[in-house]
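This is your field. Have a critical look at both lines of this record:
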Amino acid sequence: MRVFIKTDSQDRITAVNSEIFISDLSGWTEIDSGDGDRFVHAQGNYLPKSVIDDNGIYRYKYVNGEISERSADEMAADMPEDTPVAPSNAELAAAIAELAGVIMSG
């Protein structure tokens, strides 16, 4: 099974899929082939993380035939200034603990 990616004009990977789910290969680049779920269900299994992060920013790039994760600076440059950044798990846990304290005290 062959795996393909689609990139935008800035070499950011916008999609990953296997040939079985692509009806028109125009604009897709073949990157690998093999057997198993990683190749058949490439959209969710080929790369270690999802193609986009929690803020909707593309996580990977394809340059000179190589896939790599984009740096934090590269991804931050894609973030519109008015887009709120998703809180981290630690920030969420702290907010929950603070709220629980307020509830317990009164």
